[in-house]
Amino acid sequence: MNVRRRHISATVIAAATALTLGSLSACSSDSSAADGEGGKLDVVASFYPLQFLAEEIGGSHVSVNTLTEPGQEPHDLEISAKQTAQLQESDVALYLKDLQPSVDEAIGQSEVKTKVDAATLTSLEKHGTEVGGHAAEHEDEDEHGHEDEEGSGLDPHIWLDPVKYAEVAEGVGKAFEKADPDNAATYKKNTAALVKKLDGLDTRFENGLGDTKTKVFITTHAAFGYLAERYGLTEEAINGLDPESEPSANRVKDLEKMAKADGVSTVFYETLVSDKTAKTIAADANLKTDVLDPIEGITEKSRGDDYIQVMDANLKALQTALGAE
Predict the structure, then answer these.
(1) Which of 167, 102, 146, 157 is nearest to 124 (CA)?
(2) Which strands form 92-95's sheet, in the order they lie side by side?
(3) Exposed, middle or buried, 144 (CB in 10 Å: 0-12/13-18/19+)?
(4) What pLDDT is recorded for position 174?
(5) pLDDT single digits (tens) 180-211
(6) From CA 115, how far away is CA 311, in angstroms rounded?
(7) 52 pLDDT above the threshold of 90
(8) Strands 130-131 and 234-237, sheet pairing
(9) What pTM did the predictor assign?
(10) In sequence order, what are the residues at sequence separation of 6 or more whose Cβ sits closer than 8 angstroms to the Cβ of residue 287?
(11) Mean pLDDT of the residues in the chain
(12) Residue 63: helix, strand or coil by DSSP?
């Protein structure tokens, strides 16, 4: 599992393009769909990571609305009647299947011309509470031997791996080109620019985490499995993929023992979920706490104004916690 797939290659881009063409809704039209506000392509994104892609790729040619408000936990979203109506009138819907069941249902029942499931634009994997490094044997089970219960059991947090996120960006770009061919050249140019930014982010992570005192980090829930695998780390999550679940007493004891054995200094928590469990475990094990942001939304508490800035803040937090040289 811990394969170091490096940088965003032409092969990756070609694969993403092929995946996209197969994933676009059959009801997509080759004629321009940019008939929304001010003649712009009307895009609805299910939550922030897809909103960011739409805005970066679409630029001034798109009008982007997101179904998940800043500060709202995406997993808990219930679609309102107003949002359902908004969705019906959009040209493109961007979502990530199995992350938000109510979104999946609403988009499935809608008449949106172009439906883009980000999960079809890259490969997803099963991750449990322990991911990366030596932990592959636990990847699809929790400490009780139960499979993760979220959706298909596949980890949806692909945007926290810059390379996988770039594959999704390529797919979204192709979808915009198909939905609004009059502005295809701009979408293609903007997609290339975004992929270059993500390639730079990938390089910063690889260089910044290449030489550390420990490779193990503890998080509240298993959002960083893809990131851990990408950069040769091991994520130990207090909970599984569900950020609201409570860990067992045995899991807590195991984490405290592991922290001592692997030289872990920090328990990471996130801004949209209670930090109570993380701080309790940290206090009992005499560890520090810090934020590692899964970037499911940007708020005043975020350590940056957009995805790139917050990911760079995550890198600094990891470097400090892991003892980067």
Answers:
(1) 157
(2) 62-66, 41-45, 92-95, 114-117
(3) exposed
(4) 98
(5) 999 999 999 999 999 999 999 999 999 999 99
(6) 27
(7) yes
(8) antiparallel
(9) 0.82
(10) 218, 259, 264, 265, 266, 267, 281
(11) 83
(12) strand
